[in-house]
């Protein structure tokens, strides 16, 4: 992998998305940033290990199925965040929500199938997996810091993060709408 691949990966994982929205909201609600970053790392690690090991066997329809499952999860999670009352804002489950959302996050699939070169050998795929974890730790930390800047507005952070998750879900299924009409 060259510097362009690193830049593409950094921009992909730094861009707003479902995991980053949850990290920012979680930073507002919880004080344990290490748990949130560990959940993110585990989620991306699991997803990347799966996609990197099976990417040559992935049938074309798998992409659409991943998008549908991810969109359904994002809608559920988005409505849960919007519905949270201020008193519930300190509840547990942030790490589990981040883990599940990250495993289903299409960014891992895009990284493994589109950014990591298809013709690399097995050892280089392991390095690509490590690069993914390092880059997501850096970008996740940035989103946690951004979330802490919103520390006074827990309810606003929940609403914004919830709306963002629902918007991401709609963006995921938008290309599939013509296929559903058939």
**Helical proportion, percent range:** over 70%
What is the number of strand segments? Answer: 0
- Gyration radius over CA: 16 Å
Shape: globular
Biggest β-sheet, characterized?
none
Number of helices: 9
| Average of per-residue pLDDT values | 78
Strand content: under 5%
Q: How far is it from the N-terminal to the C-terminal residue, by CA? A: 40 Å
Strand-pairing-aware structural class: mainly alpha
Low-confidence region ranges: 86-92
What pattern of helices and strands is seen along the backbone? Answer: HHHHHHHHH
What can you tell me about this protein's structure?
The structure is a single chain. It contains nine helices and no strands. It has 182 residues and is mainly α. Helix 4 runs antiparallel to helix 8. About 4% of the residues have low confidence.
Features:
single chain, 182 residues, mainly alpha, 78% helix
List the helices and strands and how they pair.
Blueprint: H1 3-14, H2 18-29, H3 33-54, H4 61-83, H5 94-104, H6 106-115, H7 122-149, H8 154-173, H9 177-180
Provide a quick synopsis of the model.
By secondary structure, the protein is mostly helical. It is built from 9 helices and no strands.
